[in-house]
Design a protein that fits this description.
alpha+beta, Papain-like_cys_pep_sf, 5 helices, C8orf32 fold, Transglutaminase-like putative cysteine protease, 14 strands, Transglutaminase-like, protease
Length: 267
Amino acid sequence: MRLRVEHITHYRYDSPVRYALQQVKLTPKERPGQQLIHDWTIEIEGGAQQLHYTDHHGNGVDLIAVNGGTSELVIRCTGEVELITWDGVIGPHRGAMPLWTFLRPTPLTRAGRGVRSLTAELGRDFANDIERAHALSALILDKLPYRIGVTDAETTVEQALAGEGGVCQDHAHIFIAAMRHLGHPARYVSGYLMMNDRTRQDATHGWAEAHFEHIGWIGFDISNGHSPDRRYIRVATGLDYRDAAPVRGMRYGAAQENLVVQLQVQQ
């Protein structure tokens, strides 16, 4: 299956910006099952690419400097990705980061009383660890319904569990924290998902991967209740959302920003 992506990130500032730098992770990973990337381009208006490199997680990173005095920045990503049939199994661990690194908690994924209670509720009656992980995924969605606007990018797993709902980032973070608590390396994945009921979207997607002995990494989309399939494009991975965020940045000056995202993913 070949998916076409058009992703526009549009920043508007209420006054000219003196200086700003954006870190962009928007180039899909090449891997078994996702190897052929056709004409993937990143175009910039209101700034310029300063550097491209591969980080310690194997993510392609572009650093974009915003032109001094500008009031708008547009980052436009377009391209096609060829996806081969797969069932969410990524396979053996690769890359520069040792596997034990993915057992390490981060400020967003630190397990506390809520996560410990969640894993205790699972019990032990499972044929194997993968079955338990799927049960955990279903339990998280039951405990924390998908709800927009009640959490943000800085919400921790314990704050999310104490709330009234969450989004894909929260679901993935809770799953990651719980799997690490159970002794399994786990990581965050950001990327694209082709929806069955729409072409236009207002955000990228996020899910989790956990590592199992003799099999390797397996993906879990907690928000949608299944493992990723050919509708999913893996873009970046990390210990949590901060590591894999599509766009992160900093700026000098008092300007306030308004962010609009336009995204289309279609076959």
